[in-house]
Amino acid sequence: MRTQKDIVTALDIGTSKICAMVGKLDKEDSIEVIGMGIVPTRGLKKGLIVNIDIVTDDIKKAVREAEKTSELEIKSVFMGIGGGHIKTVNSKGSVPVRREDGEITIEDTRNVIETAKAIALPEGREIIQVLPQDFIIDGQPEIKDPVGMNGVKLEIMTHIVTGMITHTQNFIKSVNQAGFKIEDIVFNLLASSESVLSQSEKELGVVLIEMGAGTTNFVIFEKDSLKYSQVLAIGGNHITNDIAIGLHISTPEAEKIKKKYGAGLDMETNTNNQESSNHFSPYQLSEIVQPRIAETIRIVKEEIERADFVNLIASGVVLTGGSSLLKGMTSTARDIFNLPTRVGVPNLAYQLEDISDKPSYSTCIGLLQHGSDFRKFGGTSRFENKNLIGKMTGSVKKIFGDFF
Predict the structure, then answer these.
(1) pLDDT tens-digit series, residues 258-299
(2) Separation CA 132–CA 130 (nearest Å)
(3) Architecture of the domain spanning 87-163
(4) Structural contact between residues 8 and 72, judged by C-beta atoms closer than 8 angstroms
(5) For the domain 4-83+166-196+349-399, what is the CATH code?
(6) Average pLDDT, stretch 366-378?
């Protein structure tokens, strides 16, 4: 019999759709997707809420549909957050080891994380997540679990995700008004990376690029640590707008054409200029879409070069999100980066046979995985306990129960 403690619900509130996905946890710590609800989003622009009442109503519809398909009552969710208001920064913390014998304790790790969090934030901005990169003991880097080791000075490198307080509160309010509690909030891009990146890619160095409807996000992993991430206010809706202007049609029509024909776009093969039933040729459509794809990928590469992280992505480029299915996306990214490029399909995709565009659900599936770890390692909800770090008992993995 299913119980609430065995159930995790993910809620991805995107610019184009709201997805609620229900997962069942088994004894082997795997997740079975048992329910899902999807509704078009009407109250967001570029990942930000512009009409909270409409978004609240859409959340209700998505979750109710997930309840119907899973035959369960949903009380709480793990919510993803993104949008153009998200900013990230790397921060370093440092503390002396407190015990006389030099053994590092969980208390030391708590203290060093607190020092890393002590960053100057612009007015109106708050910390959403603190993501550990590495510990350093007396100058020795790349230590993942320092508890029990000896040293004089303990340091930590972290990646801190921040957001505008008002925007974050609007998302929280919309979920609460819909009648659901929030167990945890997770940076969308981190959730997606958990569902589509392999351990070897994160170890060798990889960039994950996720193009949603309103934003394009990217994150860099190397040596199994998150090194850099950024959210850009350009996404699939820009491609839709280009199609609407180029073909002199409405935006809804352009979106339908993008979804129906976009995955088949190919500059090399669609050169016969044969018109579709909509009186445009595949080549004509490709001529509109390809420049925007190339521009977006170039902007991502320029930002990575500006941050001096290009040399970290040895294993290549992974694309996810709905726009990753545009055929020109993979080849364009491969040419611009001159690196191996693939489309990232969520690890649980085999359980979603009825969904054709599986990369669109990378975030939702990653949220389910986060929720599973959150429960397993004793994460503490920040909405019941303001301590961002969690319960701080057991191993370092449990320390970061709120982060993974």
Answers:
(1) 877 765 544 444 444 445 555 677 778 888 888 999 999 999
(2) 7
(3) 2-Layer Sandwich (3.30)
(4) no
(5) 3.30.420.40
(6) 86
Cβ atoms of residues 112 and 94 within 8 Å = yes
Q: Specify the length of the chain in residues.
A: 404
**What own/partner pairs with CB < 8 Å and gap ≥ 24 does 22-25 have?**
22/66, 22/67, 22/69, 22/70, 22/72, 22/74, 23/348, 23/368, 23/371, 23/372, 25/372, 25/375
Q: Which two tokens stand for residue 251?
A: 């935006």
User: What pLDDT sits at residue 382?
Assistant: 56
Question: Mean pLDDT, the chain, as a whole number?
Answer: 85
Check residue 91 and give left, alpha or beta (phi > 0: left; psi -120 to 50: alpha): beta
The CATH architecture that domain 199-343 belongs to is: 2-Layer Sandwich (3.30)
Do 92 and 156 touch, CB atoms closer than 8 A? yes
CB burial string 289-303: b at 16+ within 10 A, e below: bbebbbebbeebbee
* Mean pLDDT computed over 304-311: 94
Compute the distance between CA of residue 18 and CA of residue 186 in angstroms, rounded to an integer.
Answer: 16
Domain boundaries defined on the chain: 4-83+166-196+349-399, 87-163, 199-343
133 Cβ contact list (under 8 Å, min separation 6): 90, 156, 157, 158, 159, 225, 226, 227
Distance of CA 191 to the CA centre of its chain: 4
DSSP annotation of 99 reads S
Q: Largest alpha-carbon pair distance within the chain?
A: 79
Residue 403: predicted pLDDT: 40
- Which of 244, 243, 322 shows the shortest CA–CA distance to 290? 243
**Are the CB atoms for 48 and 331 separated by under 8 Å?**
no
Q: Tell me the one-letter amino acid at 134.
A: D
Other beta carbons within 10 angstroms of residue 395's beta carbon come to 13
Q: Same topology for domains 4-83+166-196+349-399 and 199-343, yes or no?
A: yes
> Tokens standing for 396?
């370092």
Q: State the Cα–Cα distance between residues 273 and 226, nearest whole angstrom.
A: 45
Rounded Cα gap, residues 183 and 402, in angstroms? 10
